[in-house]
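Hello, quick one for you while I still have it in my head. A protein chain has come my way and I'm curious about its shape. I'm sending you its amino acid sequence along with the backbone structure tokens. I'd be grateful if you could look everything over and explain what you see. Here's the protein in full, and shout if anything looks odd to you:
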Amino acid sequence: MNQSLAALRLGSAKQAAASLAAGSSTGKGAAHRARGYAADAKAKNPYSHTLRLPRTGFPLRADAARREKEFRKRCTDTLYEWQLENNRGEKFILHDGPPYANGDLHIGHFMNKVLKDIINRYQVMQGRRVVYIPGFDGHGLPIEQKALERLKAQDRDSLDPMAIRKLARDFALEAVKRQTKSFKEYGVMGDWSHPYLTLDPGYEADQLGIFKVMVERGYIYRQNKPVYWSPSSHTALAEAELEYNDKHVSTSVYVKMPLTSESAAKLGATTGDVSALIWTTTPWTLPANRAIAVRHDLEYVLARVVEGGGSSAAGYQLLVGKDRLAAIAELLPEGSSIAELGTFAGKQLEGLEYTSPISGKQCRVLLADYVTGDSGTGLVHSAPGHGQEDYEFGLANGIEIFSPVDDYGRFTNEAGPTLAGKEVLGEGSRAVVDMLTAQGLLLSQQKFTHSYPYDWRTKLPIIQRATPQWFANVGDLKASACESLREVAIVPESSRRRLESYVTGRSEWCISRQRVWGVPIP
């Protein structure tokens, strides 16, 4: 029976195959006949002339890949020249803030140039003669870095300044060509054949001419003072070259600064260890500590601390701000006690002496108005070589401006053999904490998340260190600059206050850089 069923199925399959073959043949014939009918109808249709359809010379397809280039030139280069010759309105000049010639364009460039182009085209439609000369900033650290990135590390180190300058110049000019091509593809109208370049000798000469005037008027000076320094870029930075990371994590430390026996006696302490307690989020600056600042009108207490339920004989004494005593108590081990022994006004502490823990130098407690009692300990560690406030405080009190950190952000030999060569933002900072722990001077350490300045180019944290730099004193220019702003129409008007605040908030500008690609200071 199974063989019979198989035979029946095989027979059905053969019949189906034959039927499909016949249908396929019939389908081919039908398709051929349909094409024939269509061709006859097209040739013999007596009604085609009765349809009132538009006739045009436009091609059936846009062919955008080819024709867009033709329209682009007419709408940019040709239009720019035409409006200068044919518009009869007043001249409208849009000054172009130049992009860095350090790579290809991004969406920020696109938005900047397209918005400017919208303004220019609107002015053309108003009948004005638009003058728009685009520019390119061909100098500066970003270009030098990009140019050197093409080389191997050993090759970079072997280059002399002139070779680096040639390398950077060639890189910048190549970038200018690429950026110009992209801007023209955006459809931006302008005098692209004659852009201004900051690396042109004529432009450099104009800059030096202005610099000469500033020197003659006493605006330029050189000084050894703390500046923003980028260990990753190995150069000083202006404030405008910083960006702030609100999630930066530092190691904060509470450090005991041992008072001399004479100073301890002035506070009425006759036995045991007596220390002034400071707090800092930059332990790496402690080797440069040269003073402790207190505020004259704050209250301070001398307190006895006994850790972990020990005997009072084993305790120690701390000098802290009275308003911070409760916060300090929370840092102590469980079971510890803290008790006030005496209260002092800040001005009574002036002149006390202590031993700076890392350097071993004998330093003084001094008065400063910038000290507050709402954070830290009420006593501020001061390193005049590592901060603007500390620097001014140091100058006012005749304190050494000391900064044992090199261009790469590493401790120098002046910081001592234990720290020399270590990066201050990494291994060096940890080594300082270890030294404090070994000396028994570390009360507490914590991770502290806060806003911290970063190099906006490398996206890495910066430091402040004292180095001899050139500065422009812009303090005397503030009044005239703000007066000039009153003659400028600003849209929206609310932006005026922001700009004026920016101008009045600066007193000096660090103009020197530890690089070779740029206009040199004579």
